[in-house]
Design brief:
Layout lengths: L18 H22 L1 H9 L21 H6 L15 E4 L9 E4 L1 H18 L6 E4 L7 H13 L2 E3 L6 H11 L3 E4 L1 H13 L11 E4 L6 H11 L2 E8 L4 E7 L7 E3 L4 E6 L13 E7 L10 E7 L1 E2 L8 E2 L4 E2 L4 E3 L2 E3 L1 H8 L5 E12 L2 E10 L6 H18 L5 E5 L14 E3 L4
Parallel strand pairs: 3-4, 3-5, 5-6, 6-7, 18-21, 19-20
Antiparallel strand pairs: 1-2, 7-8, 8-9, 9-14, 10-11, 11-12, 12-15, 13-14, 16-17, 18-19
Helix pairs in contact: 1-2, 4-5, 6-7, 7-8, 9-10
């Protein structure tokens, strides 16, 4: 792989500023955000007043812990526009979640918000090793989902050539990557595996492609998957983090030179880690739930948003800003099986150590009489499709999961292409216990 470390003089000065400079800027911007939300969003005024807190009570960054949390339910309860802090005619764009589990969560952006978002995605792409003039293949979904347009505007801001293909049509994805000579691809990690499968189906060697950087986000993925993709394509695979409620992609990003966690762009977002039981802040280095307060959003400021993502905060390395460890899972995706906490990433990690199995998988939870039971559906690689080989692969994965995770599961090895593919976020867990 090429050395794609960006030059020091190409960085924004704040990326390498002192911690004191970063903290001073955060405090100034946090005061503005709290005041902006209190004066212009009835929801926040009511919540602050109910517990007797006022924006002027923020004297230091740690005082943010005195303010109430915002949760996804609050966005749905205020559907569609009651959390906007500016008049409707100042909102330049609206994004929303799919709403598959209830009302969509709606977010609004002013023109200034859109410009800052583009700048942060451009910063993230530069940290990933992408350069002005590179061709960027955007395979995130466009539309109400923030991935496609977020990546698009960031690549445009960086000065790249954009191929806005969106998701789906995997055969065409590979054809255009090859014909247009893309050097960067932005896509969910699970769909990148589908693209890798298509390379093999077409008889192409992925290591011969022009791809140098893959920027993967929208779902948790492991370092084992990073190794799988990097070895297959001879390219760098880096993690980008974001969520629509806070902004979209570009809240944090790995640096290509270190790949040791995602640097949070702390000049625009203030992170906390809280304990899942007490909801109290935890010190840096301890694992808990990630919480964000936006510092510069005009259209829809968010105060202490509970992301449900589990990680920990670490000191800066390639940049001065603190890092978040790769997300290990979500508190609402955690499976509790016979008293053991399990995350899909733990299954993925073990799956990728069995060379006779493909990296595609899906977890099914069922009731077996009175007991919960986990079924892990995966598939064999081409050439390992006999009943004997599939049975052997099943036993190996079952033993590895038992040894590392501590639970007994049933592993069902399907024939090649037997596990459903995702063109966006992967559906990793199907819970049938209530059916």
């Amino acid at each position: 792989m090429k050395d794609l470390t960006p030059s020091r003089d190409s960085l924004d000065p704040i990326e390498i500023a002192s911690r004191d400079e970063i903290s001073d800027l955060q405090l100034k911007r946090m005061r503005w955000t709290l005041d902006h939300a209190y004066k212009n969003v009835g929801f926040y005024k009511s919540k602050f007043d109910a517990i007797g807190i006022h924006p002027s009570d923020l004297k230091s960054l740690s005082d943010i812990a005195k303010f109430p949390f915002t949760e996804k339910k609050d966005l749905r309860d205020n559907y569609p526009f009651d959390l906007f802090a500016v008049p409707q005619n100042q909102i330049s764009r609206i994004h929303a979640s799919s709403g598959t589990t209830g009302k969509p969560t709606v977010v609004g952006y002013t023109k200034g918000d859109i410009d800052r978002w583009a700048e942060l995605v451009a910063r993230s792409m530069r940290a990933s090793g992408t350069k002005p003039g590179d061709t960027v293949h955007v395979a995130y979904g466009y539309g109400l989902f923030t991935g496609g347009l977020g990546a698009h505007y960031g690549a445009e801001k960086l000065g790249c050539t954009i191929v806005p293909i969106s998701g789906g049509m995997t055969q065409r994805q590979v054809t255009l990557i090859e014909d247009f000579k893309a050097t960067t691809i932005m896509v969910t990690p699970s769909y990148m595996l589908s693209i890798l499968d298509e390379y093999k189906t077409q008889g192409r060697d992925p290591r011969e492609s022009c791809l140098e950087v893959g920027i993967f986000g929208a779902e948790p993925w492991t370092n084992a998957m990073r190794k799988e993709v990097e070895n297959s394509f001879d390219m760098h695979a880096v993690d980008i983090y974001g969520l629509s409620e806070v902004m979209g992609p570009g809240v944090a990003n790995e640096c290509v030179e270190t790949k040791d966690g995602l640097h949070i762009w702390e000049d625009h977002f203030y992170p906390e880690i809280i304990d899942l039981k007490s909801n109290k802040p935890k010190i840096d280095g301890e694992i808990g739930e990630l919480v964000f307060t936006t510092l510069t959003k005009e259209g829809m400021p968010i105060i202490r948003y509970r992301t449900r993502d589990l990680t920990r905060l670490l000191p800066g390395t390639a940049r001065s800003m603190r890092r978040m460890e790769k997300v290990t899972g979500r508190s609402d995706d955690m499976i509790i099986l016979r008293g053991v906490n399990i995350f899909p990433t733990q299954i993925e990690e073990q799956l990728l150590t069995v060379e006779t199995l493909s990296p595609h998988f899906q977890i099914e939870i069922i009731k077996d009489q009175r007991m919960d039971k986990m079924l892990v559906h995966t598939e064999c690689v081409v050439g390992k499709e006999t009943e004997e080989e599939r049975s052997m692969s099943s036993r190996r994965l079952k033993e590895k999961i038992k040894g590392s995770v501590g639970v007994t599961v049933d592993v069902i090895v399907h024939k090649t292409d037997g596990v459903p593919r995702s063109q966006g976020k992967a559906v990793r867990v199907i819970d049938r216990r209530e059916n």
